[in-house]
Each structure stands twice: as structure tokens, then as C-alpha cells.
Amino acid sequence: MLAFIAKRLLLVLPVVFAVALVCFMLVHIAPGDPLVSVLPPDASAQLAEQMKRAYGFDRPLPVQFGIWLWKAVHGDLGTSIASGRSVAEEVFRAVGNTLRLAFLAAFLGFAFGALFGFTAGYFRDSWIDRVVTIISIAGVSMPHYWLGMVLVIVFSVQLGWLPAVGAGPGGWAWDWDHFQHIILPAVTMSVIPMGIVTRTIRALVGDLLSQEFVLALRAKGLNELRVFKHVAKNAAPTTIAIMGLQLGYLLGGSILIEFVFSWPGTGFLLNSAIFQRDLPLLQGTILVLAMFFVFLNLIVDVLQAAIDPRIKRG
Amino acid sequence: MTIVATDIVRIAVVDKARGYWTNVGRRLMRDPVSVLCAVVLILIALAAIFAPYLSLADPFLGSMIRRLRPIGTPGYPLGTDELGRDMLSRLVHGGRLSLLIGLLPVVTAFVIGTTLGVSAGYVGGFVNQTIMRTVDVFYAFPSVLLAIAISGALGAGITNSLVSLTIVFIPPIVRVAESVTTSVRGLDFVNAARASGAGPLTIMRVHVLGNVLGPIFVYSTSLISVCMILAAGLSFLGLGTKPPQPEWGLMLNTLRTAIYINPWVAALPGAMIFTVSICFNLLSDGMRSAMDVRS
């Protein structure tokens, strides 16, 4: 097991390097001067040159990348061009809100997805199966930012039960004042993972139930609950892989939902970085989110190997 | 991913009888859900294409005194938007751009991804390693984040959002194309063709492509719905279409402030995105099972 983890950790290094390279290049595929938003429009050529040197944009690209990477490894993601504050500080202030939202959405999506998926797979071709299939297809086809708007229309505008925007006054706390703000965005975000988890588990359980070992278990006289336990165990590795991937998508893909609900997370930060053309902030936020995604995949791989002994041998 | 891949490979190795596509078409026609979705999509597409000839109201002509009329107002069957423009006309006209930016990236990615994936799968070795490891890097980003990052860095605009969406959809298509090609490459008829002296390009074109295009195509159709949602999402954020162009994602954005006055008109463009995306999804599912001869 330890050898497997070590091997996976070693394999993740080139990926981390490549991800950093892509994030770095983002600033350089951008048209125009990255400093254009800080310089006054009538800035002299001399001032522009000075600023360029101050931000290090005058060095050759590989050198810039080396310096940037060295600083990033030490937790320094540069300075936001628009606000003048440290990018790392800005990102870490926002990332807590994104994590809370993503984990709550994941919990809802996975719980309902697993429930629906197992039920539909177990009662294959019944009316339950058909209803669940419709729900899951609607879930994966849903423009979730629109669902967010519709939920706001129903629960905030018409019923007035829940607040429409923001994360509550001051910092986060687990009380009703704050929690009521997270309900609508979390429900909205949970719809896509719910649909995908449902589809996956339904197909898995259906396949597993038609395999011979299930027939053998039943012939042996096990009751349905015990048979179900065996099926669930066999479905676990793939389910965990799908769930890990979905959690990663939630972390990185929350920008649209955060925009709809003005949720003060990394997506909101990204949005303002894009429209203020604050490239260091854009770069830093994406780097942090991509790193979360890479390490989440790593954890999923290790978890899978821990559950399923067949993977380690391969 | 692995489930998808084996599932697709199973479709691939089905022996191709004469009139295979006719059979698939016939099986698809027998599925009422697929037929319904196809009809809905064709109607929306036709309405969008022929929008200028449908004698609808001018989609750009606003009126300060007729803003945000509710659905069912005489003369405005679907109400008016925040600038008093006719919603029905804007929804129909909006289909032109919305369908284009939802389809074009997948079509482009299909062409590029198939070329790269089939080459990687057939040639193998160094070429395979280079292509597939590059693709792996893009898998380290969640797709929404990647699309927003690229089009955010490039700046707002339709072309930039088309480019970023194409880049997002190439890697998954390459992976599927590579895995299908690898499974076909070792089959007897490819060896037979090689033994009879056919060059690699001929084998790829005649023997490999014919067998792998179907599965890659079906996989790509399943991406259309994702692309529709993402493309409209980029416009919704303000990264795609620019006002006053009618486009569903952008309309949803500009109507966001109207939800306190006339909520259901504000929700209409999203309903269009949802309808198109669910139809593409169901149609793609129908096509997959029509091609899977096991069932």
C-alpha cells in the first residue's frame, strides 16, 4: 500500500508541473499588455518600462516561469494588480466559502444520487426506474445557473422564505442567519452530481445484479439485504471514483452559481479578476483550484486502491 | 471513464453488416422519445434559421413604455424584456447564435480530436505518448474552470469563447478515439490489410476510421448538451456574446434584475437552453442504444 501511494505521489509531480505551466501561460496568451489596467492611459513609455521591470515582465519567459513557480511553491502567488493585495491572501479568504458550498452540494448530490441510483438499479424497468431515469437526465441536462434563478424566483421572490444573495453578515458561522444563505446555492449545485451519480450507480447495480455471483449468493439462501451488501461493495470503487471527480468539478465549476447568488467564494473572485483584467489574481485562483482538483484525484486513486485489492496488483 | 470506454469498444467490434447505418436509423425511428426530441430540435433549428422570414417583431427594437410586459400580453405572446423588446422574437432569433456556439465547438473538436486520437491509437509509441500525456494535462482541470480560464484570459467575445470551448472538448474526444482505435488496431482484418501491402494511411482511412467513427460520433453527440450549457454559461457571465445580440445565455443575464418584476419572462431563455440540452441528451442516449446491437 505504501509503495502504491509513493508511486502515485511521484506520478503526480509532472502533472502539477504541467498544470502550473498552463496557469502561467494563461497570462501570456492574453492579448495586450498585462499592465494595461494599472497604467494610466497617458503613461509615458518610461513609466511603462519601469512598471514592467517592477512586475518582472521584462525577463525572458522561462526565467519568469522559474521565478513565478519558485514563489508559488513558497506560498507567494504575486500581487493583485487591481487591489494591490497579496493574491494568496485573497484566494484563501474566498476558498473557505467555496469549500463549504461545494461540500454541502456534494453531500446532497451524492446522498440523493446514491439513493436514487440503487433503487432504480434494483427495480430495473419498473416505474420507479423510469421516474428516476427522467430525474437524472433532467439533472445532467440542467443549465444549473438557470435553476438557481428559478429557485430564487420561487423561494425568495414569491414565497420570501430564503435570502436570494450573499453569505450572510460578517464571517461564516453555523447558525440559521448564515445557513439560510447556503441552502439555495447548495441545492442548485447538487443537481448535476446527483444526476451523474444516479446514472452511474443505476448502470452499475443493474450490471452487477445480472452477474453469476449474485445468483450464487441467492442460491446459497442469503436474504436480499445481505445480497445487497455484496452488490454495494462491488459498486463502491467506481462510485467513489465518480464522486471524487464530481466533487472536483463542484470546486472548480462553482463560478456560475457563485455569480448567480453573489456567493463570496473563489468563483466570485475569478469573475472580478476576469472583468478587471487582473491577470495575477486570475492565474493564482485557477492554480489553487486546479491543485485542489489534482490532489482530490490522487486521494480518490488511493482510496480506490485501499478498497479494491485488484487495483494494486495491476 | 473506464465504463464509458468499454461500453464504446463493445459497440465498435460489432461486425458491420451491409446497411448497418440503415439498421441504426430504423431502430432509432422506432424509439418514440428519440423521434420526439429530433422533431423538437429540428423545429427550433428551422425557426432559428428562418427567423428573419417569419414576420416576427424586430428583435432589436425596444420601447421604454412597454418594458417587462407579462406573458400573454396582446401583441407580445411571451411578453417583453427589460428594454421593451419582444421576447418571442428574441427567443427565436437567439436560437441562431445559441445553437451555433453550442454545436460548432463540438464539431471542431470532433474533427481535431478524432485525427489526434486515431493517429495516437494507430501509430502508438512515441506519438501516442506525446499526444496522450498532453491530453492528460487538460484532464487536471475541471472543464468549466478551463473554459472560463481560457476565455477569461483571451477576453470577452464570441470567437474567444468558441476557441476556449473547442479546447475543452478536444481532450475527452482524443481519449475515446485513442481507446477505440487501439482496440480495433489488433483485429484480424487490420493485420490482413497490412499483410496485403496497404500503407498506414490507407489502413487508417479505410479500415480503422470506418470502424471507429461511429462510436466517437455517438460519444461526441453526448457532449453537445454540455457544450450548449457551457456556451450559454459563458455568455451568461458576459464572456461570450455582446449586447444587444439576442442569445439565450446573455438574455438570461440581462433579465436577471427583472426577476422581482416579471419573474417568468426572465426565466424563459433558460427554459430554451434546458429544452435543447435535454433533447440532445435523450437523442444521444437513443443513438447509443440503437447502435448497441446487444440490446
Task: Characterise this structure.
- The complex is a heterodimer of chains A (314) and B (295).
- Chain A has 314 residues and is mainly α.
- Chain A has a domain at 95-264: MetI-like fold (Orthogonal Bundle).
- Chain A has 13 helices and no strands.
- In chain A, helix 1 (2-29) packs antiparallel against helix 12, helix 4 runs antiparallel to helix 5 (127-140) and helix 4 packs parallel to helix 12 (279-307).
- The mean pLDDT of chain A is 84.
- Chain B is mainly α.
- Chain B has one domain: MetI-like (MetI-like fold, Orthogonal Bundle).
- Helices cover 72% and strands 0% of the residues of chain B.
- Chain B is built from 11 helices and no strands.
- In chain B, helix 4 (87-123) runs antiparallel to helix 5 (125-139) and helix 7 (158-185) runs antiparallel to helix 9 (200-237).
- Chain B is elongated.
- Chains A and B meet through helix 1, helix 5, helix 6, helix 7 and helix 9 of A and helix 6, helix 9 and helix 11 of B.
SS summary, helix count of chain A? 13
The biggest beta sheet of chain A, please?
Answer: none
- Per CATH, the architecture of the domain at 95-264 in chain A is Orthogonal Bundle
Q: Looking at CATH, which topology of chain B would you report?
A: MetI-like fold
CATH topology call of the domain at 95-264 in chain A: MetI-like fold
Number of beta strands of chain A: 0
Q: Span between N and C termini of chain B?
A: 22 Å
| Morphology call of chain A | globular
What is the helical fraction of chain A, as a range of percent?
over 70%
Which oligomeric form is depicted?
Answer: heterodimer
Range of strand content of chain A: under 5%
Structural class, from helix and strand content of chain A?
mainly alpha
Distance between the termini of chain A: 13 Å
Quote the average pLDDT of chain B.
Answer: 85
> Under the CATH scheme, which class of chain B?
Mainly Alpha
